[in-house]
Structures are given as structure tokens and as C-alpha cells.
Amino acid sequence: MFDFSTVLSNLSDPVTLVLMAASASFGIVMGAVPGLSGTLGIALLLPFTFGVEPHQALLMLGSVYCGSEYGGSIPSILINTPGTAAALCTTFDGHPMAMKGQAQKALFTALIASIFGGLFGVTALLFLSSPLAAVSMSFGAPEQFWLCVFALTIIASLSSGNVLKGILGALLGLLLSCVGMDPVTAAPRFTFNTMELMGGVNVVPALIGLFAIPQALMLLRPAGARPPMAPYVPAPGVLWETIRDFCRRIWVAGLSGVIGVVVGIMPGAGGNIATFVAYNETRRFSRTPEKFGTGIMEGIMAPEVCNNAVVGGAQIPMLTLGIPGSAPAAVMLGALMTHGLKPGFALFTEQADIVYTYSVGLILSNLMILLLGCFFVRLFVTALKIPAHYLLVSIMAMSVVGAYSINSSTMDVMSMLGCGILGYLLIRARFGVAPLALGLILGGTLEEGFKLSLHLGEAEGNVVAFFFSRPQSLALIALTALSLIYSFWKEFSARKRAAA
Amino acid sequence: MQERTLDICLGCALLGLGALLWTQLEGLPVEGVLFPAALICLLAAGSLALIARALLCGSGVVDFFGETPARQWCMATALFAAQCIVAMYVSFRLGMGCGMLLMLFLLSPARTGRSLAGNVLFVAAFLGALEIFFCRIMRIYFPENLLF
Q1: Residue that is last in its domain, among B33, B57, B81
Q2: Measured between alpha carbons, how far is A333 from A438 in angstroms, rounded to an integer?
Q3: What is the domain range of residue B8?
Q4: I need a labelling partner for B52 at 20 to 30 A (CA). Which of A63, A231, A408, A421 fits?
Q5: Looking at chain A from residue 222 to 251, which residues have their Cβ under 8 Å from any Cβ of chain B?
Q6: Which of A467-476, B63-72, B103-112 has the lowest mean pLDDT?
């Protein structure tokens, strides 16, 4: 069990609070600049967290995640360009509202909705993660293996939009995780007789390369006019008016919060899908569905509550089972493992202080974002004006320094460079980088489960039965098969529709 | 490029990669080989399926650069690769500073004396901040190679 006084003492540390506020600001800027994202922010900040305590590191990364989800709404509202993919729905009503001269109200609506969604998600995280972690207690080696397979297939099928390519990407990631010394026999694998590859491919530089470099290169755009910005004229009393109007429409926030948490828990779905579901459901239940798209509060509240509730939801399976619910959660999982924390029941018992400090700290982080959004919104709006070439150069320089700082290793910088170029090629060839990243992160755990199951199966006299006959394993195999069949069927139907 | 052609090329490349990795497993103890061998077999099967699908029902076009200007992409990628190599093997400060400046100069839309001065100031401030954070606060020192 966790000690609440330790949690409070961790959270009252001024250094932690300053780090959280700085990370949340960084996250808001990452979300606010179109082309950048929370995943990139987490990957870039990760090397900066090695000098701090694990709970501080997790809170820094969690604050970036929360901040970026709110930040994504700023360009959606002001320039009709979503800052992050999950903020696309916010453009539908956010920008028309801003063009009506209500930019400040639209921004405050997004801010309050984001905080409500964030708190909703964190509450779910606090109450649902413990029971789910207890379920993981009944998992042995074969379940560990099948759980990883399930996570990989579902992420592969959902994140790239092409099931076969997603699976191939995940397999590449798993093969990359095999590079180096075999953990049991210490035999060198895929090292091509080079000393540099003996240590394997370090996860963090690879994540930086996969998520930061392709995004930086995609910032390059042909020279042309910037999208016009909606007029932003601050006026007194708008915040209170927005809060009052928000409370009158609280059912929208409740409905979207539930959708966000549920979709967030589903591995691979993430905020991109959740916001569309929330927007459509809100419009369906609304008495005035025809007004959606013309600039109404409900149209901003639904996606913003939802994509912030996803943050908490996506971390429930990540912390309890080691399955991330979204791409940023996958990078968070890598961070968790880098800091020596292993998801599962042990995390909630042996390192409960860290995990509860993190969960409770996310509440604080959301409140900080509320204050930052209220007082510094003008500053974040200026982030939209940062020239793309400055961003590109800064991201690339931070990637080099970040990759090097982990082990002071030249090899890490080279693997970051290689993964960066590979990531760009994979994105352009419609493979996506999330499956490869997850394969790399989960490779070690998957192999461990595989080998342990083999040994235990041999000891019991029947390896196949040991892999396939335990009830929990069967349930996971059924889920894996179902997710694969559904994904292939969905892709087949989409192709048929496109052909027709 | 036609998506069909790209998928066939990628499938062949992955088959080749699988074959190359398979040769690396020779002489290893069985226990260390089983898992990667299974992965290579799955990769080969997936690659064949990708090729078959491309041959049977491949359609669509893939634009490698998308909206990104091809010349700028090539320049930025080559410069970044050079920056990494120079920073790691020649001189970290020189490689990072020159790499950043050159990239800013080539990518910036205005190439005036004022913008150049702005770029120099930006790079100096950025590298200074990194130096203070990593070397002074975190005690992580940048590599010192052939030059300073």
C-alpha cells in the first residue's frame, strides 16, 4: 500500500512543482505548434529526466502529455489548423466561434473542457488501475507472452491503418529489440561482429529518432502565406461567463469524459478516434444538432473533454498491464521502463508511492495548466508564429544532445539518426512508427515470457499445452484473434467501398 | 510512385533483410535462436503476403515527399546526418554550431545580414543553454574528439 503522507510530501516539493509547471508549458507549446505533438514532446524531454527522481520524471512527462492535449486546441481555434491530430474536431466549432469575434471565449471553453477531461481521466486512473493491476496478478509467463502479442497486434492494426504493414512494423521492432547479447545465453545476436552493437539498440534514442526526426522533417513546407489568424481581443468577465455556460452544458462534459476514458483504455485507439466518437454522440443527443459546425460551445467541449480524458484512460492499461492505450502512452511506457519501473501489480505494491504520486500529481498538473491557460494564453498564442525552420533546427539539435546524454554514447546518436530516417521512410510507406516503437519496447518482455513459458512447459512435459490451455491465455488468444479478424475485415470493407 | 511497386520493393527488401539476419543466427545456442528465428519466419511470411497483396490488388499512389519540398528535405537530411557525424567524431561544439547555422541559413526564406545575425544569436543562445543544463547542472559532458 502507499503512504499518503509520502505522496503529499513528494508533491509539495518546490522543485517538483517547478519542473511540472515548466513541463506543462513545454507541452502546451508542443501541442500549440501545428506539426509537433505530445509524443514528440515526451520523447524529447525524456533524456532531461534522467537526473531527477522517478516520480519527478513521470510527472514531468505526464505534464507534457496533459499540456499538449490542451495546447492542440489553440491553433484549432485561432487558425483552423489542429495542433495535434486529436484536436481536429475542435476546428469544426472552435474556428467558426473565433471568427464570430469570440476567440477568447472559445479558448477558455477549450481550457476548462481540457481541465475537466483531464481530471475525469485521472479520477478513472486512480479508481480503476488498482483493480486491473490485481487482475495482472493471475498472469504467469504464457499470459505475459500473449498479452504482449495482443498489445502488438491491436496497436499494429489500429495505428497504421494498414494491418499487414502494421504487423510487419511491429516485427521489425521486435527484431531490433533482439540486437545485442541474448539475456539468457549471452550469445551476440545480429551484431555483425561489431562491438558497438553488443549492447543492443537503446530504446530511448530509438524513440527520439522515430518520433522526433520524421516530425521535424515534415515541418518543411513550401514557402507561402500563413493561415489567417482569427481576431483575439481579450475582454474582462469572459472567463466567468464561460464557466457559467460550461456548467449549463455539463452533460456534454460527462458524456465525453466517459467516452474518452473508455476509448482511452482500449489499446491503440487513442484520442484521434475518441474525439470523433464524442463529437458525433454529443451532436446525436443534442436538441439542436443543426447548430454543430457553426461555432457553438458544445462542439468545443466534446472533443476537448474527450481527448484529455483519454490521457488518464490510456495510462490505465499502461500502468497495470504494460499495454499503452495511445502513441504518447507507448513512449511513456518506454520512459517508465527506462527509469526501472515495471508495469503490473508490483508497481502498485512495491513502488506504490511513485505510482500514486504520479496519479495524484496529474491532478495538480491539470490545475497548473488551468492557471497557465488563464494567465499566459497570449504567450502560447505567439507560439503559432515561431518560424518552422527554427523549430526544425531546435528539434534536431535537442535530439542529438538528448540521445547522447543517456549513456554518453556515440552509438546512441547514430542509432537515433538511423531510426529517424527509418521512421520517415516507414511513415511515407504507410507503415507508421508506433508499431515499430512498441515492438522495440515490448520485445524484451515478450521474449522473456516466451522463454520462461518454454522452460516451464518443458518441465511440465507439454510445451504446447502450457502455451495454449490456460484459461487466461485462451482469453488473450481469443482477443488477439478477434482484433486481427476485425481489423482485416474493416480494411477489406474500406477497400471495397473505395473501389465501388 | 505506384503503391503496388513500392510494396513489392519493400516486401523484397524485407525478405532480403530476413535472409541477412538468418545468417547471423548460425552457431548460436538453440535457446538464443528460437525467438529471433520465429520472428524472421513471421517477417518472411508477412513480406510474401505483402508482395502477393500488391500483385493481386495493389492500387494507389505513394508520394515520398508529400507536401515537403524535395530539395529542402534532402538538404536537411544530409545536413543532419553530417551534423551528427561531425559532432560525434570531429568536434561536438563545431559540428552542432555549424550544422545548426548552415541549416538555418539554407532553410530560412530571407537571407539578409540581419537574419544571419539573428541566426547566429539564436544558435549561440541555444547551445549555451544546452551547455549550462547538461554540463553544469546534469554533469553530462559533451564528447571531445579531434578538435575542441
Answers
A1: B57
A2: 9
A3: 3-57
A4: A421
A5: 222-223
A6: B63-72
Closest partner residue to A192 among B24, B50, B65, by Cβ?
A: B24
The candidate with the shortest Cα–Cα distance to A259, out of A399, A89, A133, is A89
- CB contact (8 A) between residue A175 and residue B40: yes
| 46-105 of A, contacting B, C-beta below 8 A | 48, 50-51
Q: Look-up: residue for cell 554533469?
A: B139
Residue B110, sorted as left (phi over 0), alpha (psi -120 to 50) or beta, turns out to be beta
Instruction: Tell me which chain B residue has its CA closest to the CA of residue A428.
Output: B64
Q: Do both B81 and B105 map to the same domain?
A: yes
Q: A400-446, pLDDT tens digit by residue?
A: 988 888 888 888 999 999 999 999 998 888 888 888 988 998 898 89
Nearest to A413 by CA among A397, A425, A424, A428: A397
The per-residue DSSP string of A190-246 comes to S-TT-GGGTT---HHHHHHHHHHHHHHHHT---S-PPPPPPP----TTHHHHHHHHH
According to DSSP, the residues that pair with B2 across neighbouring strands are B61
* A488 close contact with B: CB closer than 8 A: no
Q: Is A187's CB within 8 Å of B143's CB?
A: no
Judging contacts by C-beta atoms under 8 Å, the chain B residues touching residue A156 are none
Cα A387 to Cα A394: distance, rounded to the nearest angstrom? 11
Q: Is residue B120 part of a domain?
A: yes
Is A187 an interface residue toward B (CB < 8 Å)?
yes
In chain A, domain spans: 4-220+245-495
Q: For position A494, what pLDDT does the model report?
A: 78
Spatial separation of the C-alpha atoms in residues B125 and A463, rounded to whole Å? 61
Are A220 and B28 inside 8 Å of each other by CB? no
* Per-residue pLDDT, A1: 63
A216: distance to nearest CA of chain B, Å?
10
How many domains is chain B built from?
2
Phi and psi angles of residue A80, each rounded to the nearest 5 degrees, phi first: 60, 25
Q: How many CB pairs under 8 A join A and B?
A: 148
**DSSP-assigned letters across all residues of A93-116:** HHHHHIIIIIHHHHHHHHHHHHHH
Q: Which of A171, A172, A425, A491 to mutate to test the interface with B (most CBs of B within 10 A)?
A: A171
Q: Are residues B81 and B123 in the same domain?
A: yes
Is the model's pLDDT at A224 over the cut of 70?
no
Please list, in sequence order, all residues whose beta carbon lies within 8 angstroms of the beta carbon of residue A347, skipping any fewer than 6 positions away.
Answer: A133, A319, A320, A341, A354, A355
- For residue B109, which residues of chain A lie inside 8 Å, CB to CB? 223
Q: What is the ipTM of this complex?
A: 0.91
Interface subset of A 338-357, CB within 8 angstroms of B: none
Residues linked to residue B61 through DSSP beta bridges, in sequence order: B2
Which of B36, B107, B140 minimises the CB distance to A389?
B107
Confidence of residue A108 (pLDDT cuts 50, 70, 90): very high
Q: Alpha-carbon distance A421 to A442, whole Å?
A: 22
Residue A223, pLDDT score: 64
